[in-house]
Amino acid sequence: MNFISTRDNSPATTLSQAIAAGLAPDGGLYVPETLPSARPLELGSDLADTAALLIAPFFAGDALADALPAICREAFDFPAPMLPLATPDDHVLELFHGPTAAFKDFGARFLAACLTRLRKQEDRPLTILVATSGDTGAAVAAAFHNRPGLRVIVLYPDGRVSPRQAHQLGCFGDNITALRVAGSFDDCQALVKRALNDAALQAQAPMSSANSISLGRLLPQMSYYAHAALAHKRATGEALNFVIPTGNLGNAMAAIIARALGVPLGRIVLATNANDVLPKFFSGADYSPADSAATIANAMDVGAPSNFERLRWLYRGDDAALRAAFTASSVDDGQIRDTIRARYQAHGEVFCPHTATAVKVLQDLRGQGAAGDWAVAATAHPAKFESVVEPLIGRTLEVPPALAGLLARPAHADPIAADYSVFREYVARG
Ligand SMILES: *Cc1c(COP(=O)(O)O)cnc(C)c1O
């Protein structure tokens, strides 16, 4: 299968090349030349097995095709259990059992497993640049730690990620460099973009990125939806509907593509925080990216969802069809807090602020009479956001073992100004 750009101005390329490049040369996002048509899909014996079966058509004819089962075993070596919620026919798909306790571990580990296999002994080290508002950087750092021939530079806005997120970013060392930038997330992203476009620097130190537009993150994220929905279908005969907490639309886009491939998913509803570009679009307004506003669900503080271009491609630019296919709702900080507090008091359930946006949207849907079986995607473990969650539920949260292991390591991040020449030095050092 070949891959083309959403902007149609780049040569068709192989999957390996698309994964290595991240973004297409014309600034667009890589998409398959033609999407495999919907077909009956097989439930694998476990998540890794379902993943390999589902993703195989995208790897057909590629240099990595034979390695796909091993890549899936390596990336999906922790579970994604679906558990019932207290409210009838509602479920939670827990995506936070990986090394850094957020769903981004799946994509980051799959990408690292692919890039490791694409490296040749004689290649110069490849530098992965990541600007992060918290979770992406930690997942990428954990996935690439001590991988030969690969190094990672993570930039995060100093003082604007949670203390536990900051600790996770700085605790790896070795081939991982953490930089805390005196500036905003947008400043961090601007530094990364400038470096990636710096031809002289690229010649000196080959660079790539690991943001949520990467096919190497998008494809694996289809797997947990497929595994959960196929198992649910087998057990009950019913399709599963989902509410997905959404920022850059990476996680939700994976569910949308999985459904197009034939995964028995019903409705896919998007939940955002107060950054409501998508809810406005789906309720009929023009698509108008905005500056992001800070919320307590900080991994979703996105004003210009980077995968929106892929979604439009899937609907062939037909915004009316797109609006008819999805709904999106915005949940503000007060509603997030109320939901976390109320679900704990009523049912003893604990959610991270991101997951709580989806729980709130599901509650509202049920209130409006939505029928059928539903699940919310739980994108992070609540203990990762203890400074928000613990005061609301009035108790301390147990930290999952993998996260506790990271928090027990010493951590260090170099402070830098939001200044390109300073950052460039770090990249050039190689
Ligand atoms: C990244 C992230 C999201 C948003 O996912 P997108 O793919 O950007 O839509 C939601 N919740 C958590 C915990 C995250 O880390």
Give a concise summary:
The protein is of the alpha/beta class and 430 residues long. The protein contains 18 helices and 13 strands.
The name of the CATH topology of the largest domain is Rossmann fold
Number of helices: 18
- The helix/strand class is alpha/beta
Strand order of the largest sheet: 3-4-12-9-10-11
Structure, explained:
By secondary structure, the protein is α/β, with parallel strands linked by helices. It folds into 2 domains: 204 residues, Rossmann fold, CATH 3.40.50; 131 residues, 3-Layer(aba) Sandwich (Rossmann fold). The strands form 3 sheets. It has a 6-stranded mixed β-sheet, sandwiched between helices. A 5-stranded parallel β-sheet has the order 8-5-6-7-13, with helices on both faces. β3 and β4 form a beta hairpin. α14 packs across α15. The chain is globular and about 60 Å long. The structure holds pyridoxal-5'-phosphate (PLP). The site of pyridoxal-5'-phosphate has 17 residues, from α10.
Record keyword descriptors for this entry:
single chain, Rossmann fold, 15% strand, 2 domains, alpha/beta, 6-stranded mixed sheet, 430 residues, 18 helices, binds pyridoxal-5'-phosphate
Write the topology of this structure:
Elements: E1 3-5, H1 15-21, E2 30-32, H2 47-59, H3 68-75, E3 82-84, E4 90-94, H4 104-118, E5 126-131, H5 135-144, E6 150-157, H6 163-170, E7 176-182, H7 185-196, H8 199-204, E8 207-209, H9 215-236, E9 240-245, H10 250-261, E10 265-272, H11 277-282, H12 308-314, H13 319-325, E11 327-330, H14 333-347, H15 353-367, E12 373-378, H16 386-393, H17 401-407, E13 414-417, H18 420-428
Parallel strand pairs: 4-12, 5-6, 5-8, 6-7, 7-13, 9-10, 9-12, 10-11
Antiparallel strand pairs: 1-2, 3-4
Helix pairs in contact: 2-3, 2-9, 3-4, 4-5, 4-9, 9-10, 14-15, 14-16
The protein binds pyridoxal-5'-phosphate (PLP).
Pyridoxal-5'-phosphate (PLP) is lined by residues 102, 104, 135, 212, 245-252, 299-300, 354, 379-380.
